[in-house]
């Protein structure tokens, strides 16, 4: 994620000359460095403790149990889906269920085939290799990985130019768990090496309630059902956001009360952090406001829309748009972005009688695509 997305947004519709505003976004589904420790403490350790994603959980449970009974490593596992839904957590669970160690690395850390060869050649039998952001590995490393996944072998190239020789190196059987937010970006030969693919979807509010009760217990937060439910309903179907909002509500409750997270504390704290009833923040609302108020509901080009909210087109497209489209506030049409009836309703505005009805196009893959500039 770019520093721009992680560090700050100027997320209100502003008039020219207004000073830029830099605040971290509390509903950003991407994790931050600071959150790593608390996130690690909140991860469920075993499949039976993992709420939500029933299909993936049951399928993965079957694959792991069968491998355990056979006494062989399971097929390689690919986990795809938006950030913050539990891919890393599930990778850790795979290793825990197999009672094997896990080695953690990521696509951006493996820029050369040699980096991957070093990791692969040090794996023990049955070890789990977690490759986060696997779609960001270099092409040469990807090619080495195909071979390693299929034949448990790597060819280590020694020397350069015409004198270079490939020395085959046998590897003990191991299991790759790959995670990606953009499964569509993986080349087919790599995708095909995964015997099991699980796609994680946004969580139901009831599952987030379960997750939040568990997190509150682990964090020692005294929270009641209405408080938890309020937080869950504004968490955009994402456990990472739910856990973060819970921590902010806890902060509010500690400063303004006895530390009890109830409905009132949740509403006050989330209002302070600009998260509305639907989980939309200022950037989301600014985009909808611009679409409805300035462009009569659209369609309008992405760049024009972005300029009107004082943001980069990329920020609008990758940060605000996926959730707004998924939740039916906005549609992507061949002629640009358009507000839906739900957007007008959410803003408490009446659409013009001649507002064009735009058919929504699905997002390509599980991430944003670009239809126009
Ligand atoms: N099903 C779940 N139950 C409880 N907590 C969960 C669940 N899924 C995710 N979480 C929590 O949400 C946080 C983020 O999860 P995780 O790091 O596994 O997401 P991710 O999909 O790997 O994200 P990214 O794509 O950014 O790497 C962690 O604190 C984790 O404990």
TrEMBL record:
<keyword id="KW-0067">ATP-binding</keyword>
<comment type="similarity">
    <text>Belongs to the RuvB family.</text>
</comment>
<feature type="binding site">
    <location>
        <position position="88"/>
    </location>
    <ligand>
        <name>ATP</name>
    </ligand>
</feature>
<dbReference type="Pfam" id="PF05491">
    <property type="entry name" value="WHD_RuvB"/>
</dbReference>
<dbReference type="InterPro" id="IPR036388">
    <property type="entry name" value="WH-like_DNA-bd_sf"/>
</dbReference>
<comment type="function">
    <text>The RuvA-RuvB-RuvC complex processes Holliday junction (HJ) DNA during genetic recombination and DNA repair, while the RuvA-RuvB complex plays an important role in the rescue of blocked DNA replication forks via replication fork reversal (RFR). RuvA specifically binds to HJ cruciform DNA, conferring on it an open structure. The RuvB hexamer acts as an ATP-dependent pump, pulling dsDNA into and through the RuvAB complex. RuvB forms 2 homohexamers on either side of HJ DNA bound by 1 or 2 RuvA tetramers; 4 subunits per hexamer contact DNA at a time.</text>
</comment>
<keyword id="KW-0233">DNA recombination</keyword>
<dbReference type="InterPro" id="IPR036390">
    <property type="entry name" value="WH_DNA-bd_sf"/>
</dbReference>
<dbReference type="Pfam" id="PF17864">
    <property type="entry name" value="AAA_lid_4"/>
</dbReference>
<feature type="region of interest" description="Disordered">
    <location>
        <begin position="1"/>
        <end position="25"/>
    </location>
</feature>
<keyword id="KW-0238">DNA-binding</keyword>
<keyword id="KW-0547">Nucleotide-binding</keyword>
<keyword id="KW-0234">DNA repair</keyword>
<dbReference type="GO" id="GO:0016787">
    <property type="term" value="F:hydrolase activity"/>
</dbReference>
<dbReference type="InterPro" id="IPR027417">
    <property type="entry name" value="P-loop_NTPase"/>
</dbReference>
<dbReference type="InterPro" id="IPR008823">
    <property type="entry name" value="RuvB_wg_C"/>
</dbReference>
<keyword id="KW-0347">Helicase</keyword>
<feature type="binding site">
    <location>
        <position position="88"/>
    </location>
    <ligand>
        <name>Mg(2+)</name>
    </ligand>
</feature>
<feature type="binding site">
    <location>
        <position position="42"/>
    </location>
    <ligand>
        <name>ATP</name>
    </ligand>
</feature>
<protein>
    <recommendedName>
        <fullName>Holliday junction branch migration complex subunit RuvB</fullName>
        <ecNumber>3.6.4.-</ecNumber>
    </recommendedName>
</protein>
<dbReference type="GO" id="GO:0048476">
    <property type="term" value="C:Holliday junction resolvase complex"/>
</dbReference>
<comment type="subunit">
    <text>Homohexamer. Forms an RuvA(8)-RuvB(12)-Holliday junction (HJ) complex. HJ DNA is sandwiched between 2 RuvA tetramers; dsDNA enters through RuvA and exits via RuvB. An RuvB hexamer assembles on each DNA strand where it exits the tetramer. Each RuvB hexamer is contacted by two RuvA subunits (via domain III) on 2 adjacent RuvB subunits; this complex drives branch migration. In the full resolvosome a probable DNA-RuvA(4)-RuvB(12)-RuvC(2) complex forms which resolves the HJ.</text>
</comment>
<dbReference type="Pfam" id="PF05496">
    <property type="entry name" value="RuvB_N"/>
</dbReference>
<keyword id="KW-0378">Hydrolase</keyword>
<feature type="binding site">
    <location>
        <position position="332"/>
    </location>
    <ligand>
        <name>DNA</name>
    </ligand>
</feature>
<feature type="binding site">
    <location>
        <position position="240"/>
    </location>
    <ligand>
        <name>ATP</name>
    </ligand>
</feature>
<feature type="binding site">
    <location>
        <position position="203"/>
    </location>
    <ligand>
        <name>ATP</name>
    </ligand>
</feature>
<dbReference type="GO" id="GO:0006310">
    <property type="term" value="P:DNA recombination"/>
</dbReference>
<feature type="region of interest" description="Head domain (RuvB-H)">
    <location>
        <begin position="277"/>
        <end position="373"/>
    </location>
</feature>
<dbReference type="GO" id="GO:0000400">
    <property type="term" value="F:four-way junction DNA binding"/>
</dbReference>
<dbReference type="InterPro" id="IPR008824">
    <property type="entry name" value="RuvB-like_N"/>
</dbReference>
<keyword id="KW-0227">DNA damage</keyword>
<feature type="binding site">
    <location>
        <position position="337"/>
    </location>
    <ligand>
        <name>DNA</name>
    </ligand>
</feature>
<dbReference type="GO" id="GO:0009378">
    <property type="term" value="F:four-way junction helicase activity"/>
</dbReference>
<feature type="region of interest" description="Disordered">
    <location>
        <begin position="350"/>
        <end position="373"/>
    </location>
</feature>
<feature type="binding site">
    <location>
        <position position="87"/>
    </location>
    <ligand>
        <name>ATP</name>
    </ligand>
</feature>
<feature type="binding site">
    <location>
        <position position="193"/>
    </location>
    <ligand>
        <name>ATP</name>
    </ligand>
</feature>
<feature type="binding site">
    <location>
        <position position="43"/>
    </location>
    <ligand>
        <name>ATP</name>
    </ligand>
</feature>
<keyword id="KW-0963">Cytoplasm</keyword>
<feature type="compositionally biased region" description="Basic and acidic residues">
    <location>
        <begin position="1"/>
        <end position="17"/>
    </location>
</feature>
<feature type="region of interest" description="Small ATPAse domain (RuvB-S)">
    <location>
        <begin position="204"/>
        <end position="274"/>
    </location>
</feature>
<dbReference type="GO" id="GO:0006281">
    <property type="term" value="P:DNA repair"/>
</dbReference>
